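Practice problem 4.
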């Protein structure tokens, strides 16, 4: 199946709009994992196995693996998800933003080396920074649009010919660029009014929404602003609040409870 088909199936099968972010920080791992060569893989595998039936997607952030020379553990983790939890798509959060042959290599990295089902991409170099990823028609390409950080307004809120820059990105993504139906957008939960504006511009395209939990985004406002007519359309990401809910050898059970609580909070507003 394509990424969009997998995502649609996961929304229905797991009755979930929850995306579990995988941002492994060994300094926060339980004591029994510290010092192990495979600690990052084992920690993330525990989280994945505990939450897979509650999630519509997983989102490993590549920097947390690459900074510790753990790309091999990222490869193993994505393979584990595909093997043990087939149908739950994996979004490689890389935010690549180059063009031409360099972007082609980033696409090879995401889709051929790591075998992710989707990748996050920075589109602010224009269409050239998006096209190399669209050469993989079964994969998802999720473009930064209105990000959750405070400094995002420095550029994304600029007026460009009577519309905000993030609105222009949303319109281009939904119309001129999305000829293959692969594109989704990142819109932060800290700006629910802009989520609603983006939804109005793009129709039923999927939205990846970071910013709930530790970043303070409001779940009710996020769901009401971003859901589609059938109550889907969103991948609402939570990372730290789930990953580090527990501090001991029972960390995976604590993560499952945190994920269940988040899922319940999301579903009451769908």
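Answer key:
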């Amino acid at each position: 199946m394509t990424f969009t088909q997998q995502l649609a199936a996961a929304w229905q099968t797991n009755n979930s709009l929850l995306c579990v972010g995988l941002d492994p920080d060994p300094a926060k791992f339980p004591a029994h994992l510290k010092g192990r060569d495979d600690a990052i893989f084992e920690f993330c595998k525990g989280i994945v196995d505990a939450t897979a039936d509650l999630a519509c997607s997983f989102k490993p952030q590549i920097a947390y693996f690459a900074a510790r020379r753990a790309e091999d553990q990222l490869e193993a983790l994505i393979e584990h998800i595909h093997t043990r939890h087939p149908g739950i798509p994996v979004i490689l959060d890389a935010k690549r933003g180059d063009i031409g042959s360099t972007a082609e290599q980033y696409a090879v990295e995401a889709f051929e080396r790591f075998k992710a089902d989707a990748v996050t991409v920075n589109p602010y170099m224009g269409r050239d920074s998006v096209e190399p990823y669209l050469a993989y028609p079964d994969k998802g390409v999720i473009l930064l649009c209105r990000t959750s950080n405070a400094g995002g307004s420095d550029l994304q809120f600029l007026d460009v010919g009577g519309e905000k820059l993030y609105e222009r990105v949303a319109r281009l993504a939904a119309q001129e660029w999305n000829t293959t139906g692969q594109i989704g957008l990142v819109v932060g939960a800290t700006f629910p009014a802009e989520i609603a504006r983006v939804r109005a511009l793009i129709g039923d395209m999927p939205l990846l929404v970071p910013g709930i939990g530790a970043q303070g985004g409001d779940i009710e406002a996020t769901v009401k602003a971003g859901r589609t007519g059938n109550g889907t359309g969103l991948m609402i990401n939570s990372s730290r609040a789930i990953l580090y809910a527990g501090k001991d050898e029972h960390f995976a059970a604590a993560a499952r409870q945190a994920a269940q609580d988040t899922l319940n909070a999301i579903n009451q507003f769908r």
